[in-house]
Design goal:
Layout: H1 14-26, H2 32-43, E1 48-55, E2 61-67, E3 75-76, E4 79-81, H3 88-100, E5 104-115, E6 120-129, E7 140-147, H4 157-171
Parallel strand pairs: 1-6
Antiparallel strand pairs: 1-4, 2-3, 2-7, 5-6
Length: 175
């Protein structure tokens, strides 16, 4: 049995090419770009996007906030929701500033995850809090540095996991 060297080309029906070319030309008509943007906004699913910051200092202490509105797990990372047309990096810096009056130098994203429970995408950054005195907002009861191995009991498992991941990466020199 002999094997021939065959050129594999996808089969394209002449009418399908014609239809695609016609649609491509129609996209240049006035108003079509607007119609496409409107169609995408109406059809494509949307998710809320949350951002958080794991800030470790040189002693491997983590910066946590005690929130007014989180009674089940009041201690948490600085975090919040993105506003419209806001980048994730800008969003976490805004949230940190709003909640504490502080700013940070961001490192790499530590985690990007989807939660089907809350239907949101969470992005967790690493970073270094810049020196300053916290000015707490009305939604924050306290801001404290905790040794990474002595975290409060009342934090979410996700928060604990992110802190442990950041500490492990820092020990390996990856942060």
């Amino acid at each position: 049995m002999s094997v021939k060297n065959l050129s594999i080309r996808p089969y394209l029906h002449p009418r399908s090419i014609s239809w695609k070319q016609t649609m491509a030309r129609l996209m240049y008509l006035p108003g079509m770009a607007w119609a496409m943007r409107w169609g995408v906004k109406m059809v494509v699913p949307r998710h809320r996007v949350g951002v958080a910051l794991v800030a470790l200092d040189e002693e491997n202490r983590v910066f946590l906030l005690r929130h007014v509105f989180h009674p089940a797990a009041p201690w948490s990372l600085p975090a919040g929701w993105l506003e419209r047309k806001e980048s994730p990096a800008d969003g976490i810096l805004r949230e940190l500033r709003e909640e504490t009056g502080l700013t940070a130098v961001l490192g790499q994203p530590l985690s990007i995850e989807y939660s089907d429970i809350a239907n949101h995408i969470g992005i967790v950054y690493t970073g270094q809090i810049q020196p300053g005195t916290p000015q707490l907002s009305g939604e924050i009861l306290a801001a404290e540095w905790f040794p990474a191995d002595q975290l409060p009991d009342d934090i979410l498992p996700f928060t604990r996991d992110m802190i442990e991941t950041a500490v492990a990466m820092k020990r390996k020199g990856a942060l």
